[in-house]
Amino acid sequence: MRKGERRKEELLDIAYRMFISKGYENTSVDEIIEKAGIAKGTYYYYFKSKEQMLEEVIGMMIEKEKRSAEEVLDMPLDPIMKTMGIIRSFTPEVDEQTIEEALHSPENIVMHEKVKKRLIEEAVPLLSQVVEEGIKEGLFYCDHIPERVRVLLVVSNEIFNEETFTEGDVLVFMDMMEKMLGANPGSLSAIKSLIGGDNGTKE
Amino acid sequence: MRKGERRKEELLDIAYRMFISKGYENTSVDEIIEKAGIAKGTYYYYFKSKEQMLEEVIGMMIEKEKRSAEEVLDMPLDPIMKTMGIIRSFTPEVDEQTIEEALHSPENIVMHEKVKKRLIEEAVPLLSQVVEEGIKEGLFYCDHIPERVRVLLVVSNEIFNEETFTEGDVLVFMDMMEKMLGANPGSLSAIKSLIGGDNGTKE
DNA sequence: CTCAAAAACCGACTATTGGTCGAAAAAGTT
DNA sequence: AACTTTTTCGACCAATAGTCGGTTTTTGAG
Fold it and tell me: Is the pLDDT of residue B203 over 60?
């Protein structure tokens, strides 16, 4: 009765690693069950389909990011720092070094998109809350908060998930954040190091 | 020696329609060749793989949009109108009524992403040129033009390609454009009708 | 017009895929 | 032990993208 739970976790874990390392599309059910040492039927006893399994794997991934974002939310930071922190925790590239590599490879489009979609879904309310705080404290000034926040997340995801983002991209993004949220000029740019790290300048 | 060209166009055309109407993933090579009345071997005489065919189909689609964008570029409009026009012509939803329906269905992710990617690739230089004009004419004021333009295109694509975008989304987008390009407040918002049409308010 | 080379075409075949199913082994319950 | 429930098994299936050797059709040079 409990054995099943463990089995499922184990399968989820194997699949997670395989999806990350070689992509969802390029990982066959046969490979998964071979690595797990089980039969086809057993696999389908736990998962109704391969895609449903992907959904669960993604669920796991999101949970992790969400928890780390919620931690940020509870920290005694000003809304500006919180905003940066949340955006950062919802941008992979941090986790393992290989996660993004695989997640954003030309293949793996499906997984990438599904992750992105759920990520934004989860992040919008959290970040909106922070922005609200920021407004109350007079640090931000804007309307249509969820819509704005969504735009921010979309852009951050789209731009920073490609390994070829430049110094200019970061600059523009910070500028955009300031203007979209109605923050004081420079209040965000000052800490741009939090986002980009040093990706080097391209060409 | 020329017969091949016609055949290929015909296949491309059939595939285009099928991809649009039922999605790339849900269209099998067998279906295509059956509709075309040819044999498997013939198909693979023209296309090295199904995916490569998709690439060519997308190429066709992009060409169309690009041409219409270039027309806008040559029109005697002020940069503000041109900007709107280009963004608009690079946002599907115009073409056929069904195109988006299929393009943005939960499946068809692969096609959607590939189209998006190439769309942005093609649009960035065009739109950058327009923004440059706008700056010369004193209508815009900004730096890092390609990066900014790219952000604009990403957002427009991400937001307006979902059938559930709201009045608020449009408002925020126009505001963002103004601020990102350093346009005079209201100079773009005035013509927001050009983008959204009337999608109704959700919920 | 002839005819060989090039282009176009054919369809049976393969390998791999995600998924099904009925039956059997394990585990738990009484 | 006798039963019920959970878990496991693996042969089997239908669909799929792609291959290949051979055949027909087109074409253009002589």
Answer: no
Which residue in A110, A148, A171 is closest to B109 by CB distance? A110
Through-space separation of residue B18 CA and nucleotide D12 C1' in angstroms:
32
The sign of the torsion formed by the CA atoms of B194, B104, B128, B74 equals negative
Rounded distance in angstroms from the CA atom of residue A54 to the C1' atom of nucleotide D6:
24
Specify the pLDDT at position B188.
Answer: 78
Give me the CATH topology for the region A59-195: Tetracycline Repressor; domain 2 (1.10.357)
What are the pLDDT digits (tens) for B175-191? 999 999 999 888 877 77
Residue A69 predicted with pLDDT over 70:
yes
Q: Which residues contact A162 (CB under 8 A, 6 or more apart)?
A: A104
Q: Hey, is B193 helix, strand or coil?
A: helix
Pick among A151, A159, A173 to test the B interface (most B CBs inside 10 A): A151
Where in chain B is CATH 1.10.357.10? 59-195
Over the stretch A155-168, which tens digit does the pLDDT of each residue have?
999 988 777 889 99
Rounded to whole angstroms, the Cα distance separating B93 from B99 reads: 7
What's the CATH fold of domain A1-47? Arc Repressor Mutant, subunit A (1.10.10)
pTM for this predicted structure: 0.89
